Amino acid sequence: MSIAVACLAGCETLPEETRSRAPAATAADRRVPVPERDRVLYDYRTAATALRAGDYDVAKARLDDAIARIGGIIANDADAARARGLFSAESTKVFIGEPYERVMAYFYRGLLYWRDGERDNARACFRSGQVIDSDPGPKQENYAADYVLLDYLDGLASAKLHADGSDALARARAHAGPRLALPDYDLAANVLVFAEYGYGPRKFAGGQYGEQLRFHVEDSPSRSARLVLAGGRRIVPLPAYDDLGFQATTRGGRVMDHILGNKAQFKAAASVAGDIALAGSVVASDNARRRERRGKDGDDADAAAIGLGILGVLGKVASAATHAEADTRQWDNLPQRLSFAAFTLPPGEHLGRLEFLDREGQVLASRSRPVKFTVAPGERDTVVFLSELLR
Length: 391
Fold this sequence. Notes:
By secondary structure, the protein is α+β, with helices and mostly antiparallel strands. It has helices at about 15-20, 25-30, 40-55, 55-70, 80-85, 100-115, 120-130, 150-160, 165-175, 245-250, 255-295, 300-320, and strands at about 5-10, 190-195, 200-205, 210-215, 225-230, 235-240, 240-245, 335-345, 350-355, 370-375, 380-385. It contains twelve helices and eleven strands. Helix 6 runs antiparallel to helix 7 (about 120-130) and helix 11 (about 255-295) runs antiparallel to helix 12. Mean pLDDT is about 80; it is low at about 10-30.
């Protein structure tokens, strides 16, 4: 398993091994025409790849474009209205992603703002992410705005801006529950580590006609991580504070799910009606032939057979033309688990090792790798981004 390590600081060093293995697809992708309805999806994927490769300018540009677009899309625009119609697929509308995908755009942009020393903008991004997650649907109220790190980072940014972050810290601890011990804010901490590992949820279509949007979460063997520094004399735990698989599967229903359900019902009903009409056409045609063999007029039966045949064909055509399938376009290079740690180190270069642990807390040796980053002098925090994903 490859691990991308990016050090986001005023004076950062990206390990040579990571540079050489970073995907070169980003530059090539820029030359590929992207349909307007897929522009945000392209931005999402490219931003994540660029962030893991240490290409922060590209990551910021793509995230800024995506955020501007998802914030300006009107639900009742022509594409969205067309997608709600019987004969257009949901995938014809402009993609903005499910809530967990939109949240991650703000999460990544927030850590990049923090890297640039803009704590206020970082905090605004984390708060925007919680707003996106604040309406999980009926009977899912317990999962509203329940990202641990979004509240925790909101409070830390506030505290570093000399404001009160205690309410946000309390919310984060409530989300985390007793299983995770969130540390108090250390305002002297000058190193912020953002870590991600595992592979995020995958969308697929369920139901008779693919009208149900569902998620598959393949649990990663990496259940937690840690950063080992100073020859093993210091260990920084990196537990999984948030799980995108959990976030994807606790959102409840969408408005579009109801629309797709109605489409599926119409598709099924039209198909059944077509079958019945075609069967009736065959019966009427047989009756017409019998009357003719008896020397009677079969014109009425023939007319009925033709009419029923036309109705049957129309029903089958309408059924075939109805697109009830859910939109399974997805931000497919997201992680599963998110972690964070803040601590203090002196300015200069630091060496360490990133280790991933399994369910029993045993080190997954094949996934461990060396880490090198530089802590810049001054008041700006050094942001270190660690990812198990390569692109």
